[in-house]
Every structure is written in structure tokens, then in C-alpha cells.
Write a structure and sequence with these properties.
It comes from Sulfurivirga caldicuralii. By secondary structure, the protein is α+β, with helices and mostly antiparallel strands. 28% of the residues lie in helices and 18% in strands. The strands form 5 sheets. Strands 7, 8, 14, 15, 16 and 17 form a 6-stranded mixed beta sheet that branches. Strands 2-1-4-3 form a 4-stranded antiparallel beta sheet, with no helix packed on it. Strands 10-9-13 form a 3-stranded antiparallel beta sheet. The longest helix has 52 residues. The N terminus is likely disordered.
Length: 375
Amino acid sequence: MLLLPTGKVWQTVHEEEYLSVIKSGGVKIILNENLSMPSSKKCIKEHGFTLIEAVVSVLIMALLVSGLSTLYSKKIVLMKKQENLHRFLSIKQHMLNYLEVNGVLPCPDVDGDGLQDRKQQSNGISTCKKSYGYLPYRDLALGFATDPWKSPFAYAVNRRATKKTRVTDVCETASLFAKPGDPVHVGNELGNQNRLLLCPSTGFLYCARNSNETLNPSTCKPQAGLTDDCVCLVKNQSTGELEVAEQEINTGADFKNLLEGAGLQVGPPYISWFTPPVGYNDNPSATPYKNLKVLDESGEQIGGAVVAMIASYGVNGQYTWNENCPADLSDFEQENCDHDETFQIDYEKMEESGDRLIWIDVFTAKAALVRGGKL
């Protein structure tokens, strides 16, 4: 019932109706708590969410979970890419440390045990078993065997590192992969076209590019640039003409005697500061010394005279290894796993895929040997 402040009855309502208590000014509506609500109204109160509201709630939750899952996945990929970069920097440093200490670089690991694999050739010289394979992480004393995607690192070296007539030739960059203790050679002994030459007037050693080279002082013109013909010239006192005055070193024994006479030792390293390519060579690319080379996405060469290459195949690593460089990979991925002497960088695509390359060229290798007191 509704009461006025005086206590008089204003209005009487049916007992089965439910009254609420409201305070508004001086008026009170007194709730009779003994009364019950009709069943139809009570059901509306007890339902809570309708079916539509429940569906919408589930959809919102699903979107939130999906969004968080996507963000988490992207975060994981980013962390793996960053970790891969750190591992590559560590690999390069360990490679250079190995070179400084041993005077040579390791051969590829062929069987996956983490150790380099070599082959004893018929002439008694040890070469790399293959010019490509896995990174020999145990030889390098690395604290990890794979990239962050659990795939092994690919490792490729100078194509002539498997040749018994090349790895101990002082005029070949493949000599970076000789086995310490093997005898040093020069090209003539092994049937190569390389020639090791000495300029007696200066004591300067250098390699001629091939055995068919015509030694002609007339080729030494400023516009022609430096050639092997220009390294050792003397002026004939009678004619006043320049003459080639070089002396050829015919055997490894002669080379050894020459160095020992100067208080130096032979190998390792077998490579020397005069081993091509050097500053005066006009083509420090893959040919003619079978080094590796690196191209950008447009096909332009951005890295030459590469003696060792390390690669990670990123997100597609397991697929690339398991399927042996499948044909449905992108162009740059194909180029980096096809076991030839060319590699390619596509910065935009590699940022997405997580692929990475790092390499050591002959100039970096020589600098490491100098730091290690080997040259």
C-alpha cells in the first residue's frame, strides 16, 4: 500500500503485485516482501544473457584470442630473426679465429656430425671431400649446431678445395683449405697454369695468371692499367729500353728454400699475400679462381672473391633441407641452395623469410692471417 507521511492510506493495491521501496521526498512505497513475482517476469530476470548476446561475446573473445596469438607468433619470429643475426656474427668471428690459429679454413661437414670431412687423394694430398655441406660447428667450437628454426647452417667453399692439384698451390685461393703438414707446391708441378714469379731486384713475389701469358713490357701503358707484365721491369743500360727481369719459381721445394733463406717458414698458411686475387687483379670474382660470388636482387654483383659462405634458410629451412632445394622456392632461395658458386641477397624478401648469408672473402682471410702472425 502507498502511505503518506501522516500514515494515512493513499491507495491499496492487489496483494499479488510486487511493490518496491522508493524514497522520493516525503513519500514511501513500502515493499511487501511476502508477495511473489509472477513467473513470466521472474524468468526475464533470471535469464541473464540472451542467445544473441552470448554469440557476440564468443566472437569477441575469439577475435581477441586470435589477435593475441598473431601478435605472439610475430614476436616469436622477430626474436628468432634477431637470434639468427647474433649466431651469424658469432659464426664469422669463430671462423676468423680458426683461421688465425690454424692458418687454414675448415672444409664442409658432409655427414652432419659437426666435423669437417676431408679426402686423402692419390698424390697424398688431403682435400675437402665436397665444396658444400653443413657448417662444421664442432671444429669451430660453436655453442650451437643449428639456426633458431632448428635447421643446420649450409656451408660452401671455393670450388677448387676438392682438387688435389689446387689446395697446396700457393697461387690458388683454394690453398686456404689445405691440410697443415701437406707439402707446398707451385702450379707447374701440379700441371696448373699458375706461375709463381720472383722479381730479383725487389724480392717481390707474385703469380702470373696463366702459363700462356706473353711477357711484353710494351703492354705497360698507363691507360692499360697494371698487369703481371708490369711487376718486374728493369731498364737496359745499353738500349735504354724496359725489359722483363722476373725469375720463375718452378717447384715447391725452390719456394720453400727461398722463404727459409729469408727466415720464413712454409705453411700453414699455404696462401700468401701475393696469392690472387690481389689489388692489381682486374677481376676479383668467381673466375678464374673458382671463388664464390654474391648478387643482389637485380643480379648485380655485390660480393666477389668469396672463399667461404654460410647460409641459413630461415623459416623454410626444414623444407629446403628435406626436399633438397625444391623447385617451388623463390628465386633467391633457389640460388642459395643449388650448390653452385653464385649466391643472392634479396633484402626485402629475406627480412620476411628470415634467410641470411654471411661470407669471408680472400681479403678478409688475408687480414685475419696477418693479425694471427701467419703472413
